[in-house]
Amino acid sequence: MLDQEDMAQFGGADLYYPTSSAREVRAELRLGDIGPEAGIGFPAWVAAITPRLQDVMTLRSDWNSYGARPIEFSNLQAAVDLLKWIMRPNTPSPIIMPTSDGSLQLEWHERGLDLEIRVRGRGRYYANVEDSRTLDGNWEGMITADLTQLKNVVEDLTGRSD
Amino acid sequence: MMQRAYIDDPTIANDEVLLRRIPRWHFYFDKNLGRQRPSSAAFEDHPNGSPMSVHLANILKLHGLGAESILVGHDGYAIAGILAELARTNGQGICQKPLEMAFMPISA
Q1: Domain ranges for chain B
Q2: ipTM higher than threshold 0.95
Q3: How far apart are CA A27 and CA A106, in angstroms?
Q4: Tens digit of pLDDT for each residue in A129-159?
Q5: Assessment of whether the complete model's pTM goes beyond 0.90
Q6: In this structure, are residues A63 and B23 in contact, taking their beta carbons and an 8 Å threshold?
C-alpha cells in the first residue's frame, strides 16, 4: 500500500481531489433551424447526444486529474450549431469528448474513416480526417463557412455506417 | 505563464514506457478496431500551456511500484502506456521533472 510520502514523489497533484461543488446546470441548448440535409422532424442525433452533453456540463475543474478546465457552455452550443448543418438523417451520432482546455471534440469512427472536429466556440472548428481506404481522403484544417468538404466526409461516413 | 525551456532527455530510452491516466470520459468503442480505446483528447497538454504529463514505468519500478500505483485515489480511471520511441517519432521530446514527466514539442 502506498503512503503519502511515496505518492508525493510522483506528483502531489495526483492526490488532489476536486472539492468545489458541482456547478448548477441551468442552460438551454437552442436547436434553431436545421440544415436541409437533416430531413424532416426532430433529428435522432439530438436525442442521442443530449445525455452526454448534460454529463459533460457537470464536469468540474481537474476532471481528468491533470488540471482540465470545466467545459464552456458556449462550446456545446457551437457543437450543436455545426451538427445541425452537417448531419444527415442516418448519420451516426458523434462521440462527444470533453477536452482539457474546456472545449469539445466531436468524433466519428466508421469503417476506416475517422473524423474528429475540435469545437472552440461558434465558428471556430478544426477538422481532422483520416481514411484508411484512401490516403487522398486525409486532410485537416479550419472549417470555413463553406461546409462542402466537411459535408462530403459526413456523407461518406454515413454511407459506411451500419 | 512563464514557460521553462524543455530539452529532450537522451537518458530516457526509447523502450521506456510512458504512462498516463485516462478518465472514463475519454474511452469509447471504436468500431474500426472492434474494441474500447482512448480518444486522442486524452493526450493533450495542460490547459495552462505546460506539456502533457506522464509517468515513467521504470521510475515507478525503481521505487517498488507498479503502473497501478498512479491510479491510487482515482477511481474509474484506466492507464494508457506508450513507448518513448512513439512519442519521439511524432515529434515530441520527453524530459524529467522532480514530480512527474512531461512531453513537449522538440522544437520548443
Answers
A1: 17-40+50-105
A2: no
A3: 20
A4: 999 888 788 999 999 889 999 999 999 999 9
A5: no
A6: yes
